[in-house]
Amino acid sequence: MQELFRNARKVGTFPLRLLSRKNETGKSYFLFCPDKSHKRAVDRNRTKRLLKELVRTHLSQFPAGMDFAILAHIDFSKKSPEERETIFQSFFQKPQ
């Protein structure tokens, strides 16, 4: 896990950031990380639930054989479902 944070490719901006790195297993693994702005466990769990659902619905867009860490600020969970979807979709858009 430390290797993921040290040598990862970083994508995204506030309030959501995606870190990715190749692994040797051929399977994708996900880590959901609410940051320190989440003061209560209820807020951290809600953010993780929202992220897991977004990953589940967009799983086909993630390449196989990668480790992913998704870092989220508390503001992410306070946004509307449409805004969360737009922010998450920005991970898959090509940089210009």
UniProtKB/TrEMBL annotation:
Its EC number is 3.1.26.5. The keyword Nuclease applies. GO terms for biological process: tRNA processing. InterPro entries: Ribosomal_Su5_D2-typ_SF, Ribsml_uS5_D2-typ_fold_subgr, RNase_P. Keywords: Endonuclease, Hydrolase, Nuclease, RNA-binding, tRNA processing. It is an enzyme of class 3 (hydrolase). GO terms for molecular function: ribonuclease P activity; tRNA binding. SUPFAM superfamilies: Ribosomal protein S5 domain 2-like. Pfam families: Ribonuclease_P. NCBIfam families: rnpA. This is Ribonuclease P protein component.
